[in-house]
Please model this.
Amino acid sequence: MKNTDQRHFATQAIHAGYQPRAHQGALTPPIYTSSTYAFDSVRQGGEAFQGENDHFIYARLGSPSQQLLENRLAELEQAEAALATASGMGAITAAIWSLVKPGDEIIADLSLYGCTFSFLAHGLKPFGIEVTFLNLSDPANLARHITNKTKLVYSETPSNPNMRLVDIAALADITRAYDCKLMIDNTYCTPYLQNPLTLGADLVVHSATKYLGGHGDLIAGFVAGTKPDMDHIRMFGLKDMTGAVISGFDVALLLRGIKTLHVRMDRHVENAHQVAAYLEQSKYVKNTFYPGLQTFAQRQLADRQMRQAGGMIAFELNADRAQSAAFVDALQMILCAVSLGDAETLIQHPASMTHSTYSEEELLAHLISPNLIRISVGLEHIDDIITDLDQAFESVFSGTGFSNNGLSISA
Ligand code: 3LM
Model:
């Protein structure tokens, strides 16, 4: 894959937007910690506030560290501009607050990260913004429902936690005919595996806490799209509404993580293919959801839209909720933890953890079954990952009285 200036992704991830020679040869960019920036005169300060020069003003409005990161992220997402934030939720909320007003409608997909769902379903409602959740895997559902009131269509692909895909180009064909923006959460894929903007989306958001950081040592996010949209989100959603600005120290960690994204991601994908194949043949597993499997229901769409299948897998056990939790508890090397995209393999039970704010009815309506497990396949040796899964299955299902006697929970 080539970027706008014709260099490859791996090169841009390491070099875009930074010239060591302009910084006394320092290969690693300096970290700007200043909260405020001095002007030569009131006139220069006034012009900066009017947007008539590009002088930095105050770190909540931007800093040289943040600007370098944003230029690099925009390059990787093939966007005109990007805006970095203190968290993924910081990017999602700053962008959405900037795009809708009371009386507008948002249409979102059925499957979303728990806090995004909570923000849309419970956070925005009291402010007079209508939110409708539809199965956007079938674009016909959007075509049937969209009206002039719909200002934003929002989806993840693959979705957290159950790996459903939406066809970005097909959704964009529908939103384009309206005064309505399409916003895609690209956290699971990263810009290395999928570029929603090139498929027709207007905005892309990320939790950079995950694969982009890659080492579980920072919280960050970003949104990318057109320069006018980014300017508006920066000067309204971020500056005045959320204030969720990224610190210079986190910029430095994130820039370091991004340099190895392509190398790490290739290994995540390689390991995930093997884990998915193992799970699919296990008698303890009812369904394995991984875009790289031949049996994946949306395999053709995955091949068209994603460069590789990613490092995330969801699977349903032939077990009830308590037994599913017992399986997670029985793992020894694999860690029971939320988040994803780290070097460590992380596993969690969405109904109890990331999606525990959902009521029982919401879990059902949003296709999160009580026996669903999510695994973020890490960078450990593949044999050690599979050995751990194997011993947990055996200890829970054949060693302690639980049996796979035809129990089947999910619909
Ligand atoms: C998680 N996810 O374990 P931050 N979009 C997606 C995400 O997965 C997330 C965000 C946005 C998880 C975090 S759960 C308490 C831990 C697809 C986060 C939000 O604000 O950077 O955490 O991103 O699934």
